[in-house]
Design brief:
heterodimer, A: about 160 residues, Glutaredoxin, 2 domains, about 10% strand, B: about 425 residues, Rossmann fold, Ubiquitin-like (UB roll), 4-stranded mixed β-sheet, binds flavin mononucleotide, binds iron/sulfur cluster
Chain lengths: ~160, ~425
Amino acid sequence: MTQEQILSEKEISEIKDSFKHFPLKSAACIEGLKIVQKYHRWVSDEALKELAAILEMSVDAVDSVATYYNLIYRKPVGRHVIHVCNSVSCYIMGYDEIIAFLRHKLGIEYGETTADDRFTLLSVSCLGDCDHAPVLMIDDDLHQNLTTDKLEKILNNYE
Amino acid sequence: MEKPLTEHIKTDGTWLTLTEYEETGGYQGLRKALSMDPLAITKLVGDSGLKGRGGAGFPTGKKWSMIPMGKDAHYPKYFVVNADEMEPGSFKDRLLLETNPHQIIEGAIIGAFAIEANFSFIFLRWAYHKAAKAITQALQEAYEVGYLGKNILGSGFDLEMSLHISVGRYMCGEETALLNALEGKRAIPRAKPPYPVVSGLFGKPTIVNNVETICNVPHILAKGADWFMKLSKSEGEGGTKLYGASGRVKNPGLWELPLGTTLREILEVHAGGMQDGYSFKGVLPGGGSTDFLTDEHLDTPMDFESVQKVGSRMGTGTIIVLDDKTCPIGMLRSLEHFFAHESCGWCTPCREGLPWTAKLLDAIDAGRGKMKDLETLEFHTKYMAPGNTFCALAPGAMEPLQSALKYFRYDFEKHIHEQKCPWKS
Ligand SMILES: Cc1cc2nc3c(=O)[nH]c(=O)nc-3n(C[C@H](O)[C@H](O)[C@H](O)COP(=O)(O)O)c2cc1C
Ligand code: SF4
């Protein structure tokens, strides 16, 4: 019985295309993980295996890279990922209130996803926008100078 | 007051296109450089007094001069721009990346030419999406007109430059860990020596420079080393500096000022002083891994040497202000949890010591602290001092802690005596 393939032809060709930037195939490991995640939102064990074969690396070697980086997800995430900056300037400017609000509003803790699959809540270190603290990112969007009222409205924009 | 790095920034939120950059004198430095001997460029940069803006302040010309040159050197060499910017409280490179990408590209081409590198990477942190767009567009423009690619402007010099977007880890900013990340590996640091200048990316000679460092290079080429040295108020260190302030100041932001502007001027004049209802308690002068300074240090010029003399580091030059309404132990908790989380786990003092430190701070903050905990914290600051760990992450993590134990001792003791955080009602 042949297992169904997870990575599409399009993904595979994108991964192979990234080889051209590097003298070694294994150097495209991080690029490959990014490409897989772009299409699947996270990197499953099966996808990781197929990627390892393309990179001509062992599965463990690819997994050791995948699990090292904060932004490669080895567990499924919701439709939107909230990254709350928990670093020092945001702490001074009201991080505690922001995170308390999110916990209450979404009913989840860090690392968890809402039951309707809408949001995953993660912390992130300094987003480099300290003069607009407190800040967070939802997917690719940066939201600055947050207050709980403002955040309430912002969340409504993500379905 | 001259502001070479930021004077042409547009106010509408878009970045300078190639044409706009050229209209402000852009790529004139590169033209000049291509007519020079590579070694003369390195000498010029050395004479300018430019020191690395990534935090350590290493003289840029000196670094470039350590690259093996000529026929016997190992090729291909690499020139890498460090745009990882993940130091807590630092947000200066973001501005340069988002507003004027060609300034970085031009600087990197000049750097690559000076060390005879034919490949260059810009290593960008994932969170900077706008910067990624700006750099991508600018690279394309630069290729189209022949500033990148084969035989640049007819000089015979070839350079391929590409953008690498990181997947997030503070360690990626440490230059040898960055090289591992570029090779597709875990971003753990490498043993030094050999230094990257001898054996760097894929084992070849490599320069890693910070974004702000690189941005200065085209201006040094165009206007000369003397001009650059005179921009600064400090002896032996050239240029302007992008200073920032965050926290409870009236006007948080970034300002390009002469290197050596005092802390007081930055905080009181540019950041507008403290917000109403808050008073000043201290600062981390250059990001999360620098020692606290207090009132008595406000007249210190913000340059590498002067800040070091008063017991801290200029670091990234982005100042984090602590006010009287914020608990210093809470602030330290935020910092030490960050460092513990970002430790790569390679060496024991850091892997074990940072979570330990973070937990002790949690306990003190939660009203469970003992006087003995302060001794344990002191012990860690010595155990993770420079030289005891494999890279600078752990010693950096100890800087705010050791200085807080010195300047805010009373606050630690009060937490312990009262068995609660005095800032929480
Ligand atoms: C843990 C750690 C993180 C660092 N992060 C950065 C960074 O994000 N950006 C940067 O330019 N330098 C960073 N550095 C400093 C670099 O290792 C290196 O010194 C710098 O990129 C050299 O550039 P410069 O000479 O132009 O300053 C970091 C160092 C350490 C130890
Ligand atoms: S000091 Fe920390 S981050 Fe640096 S090598 Fe050791 S464990 Fe890794």
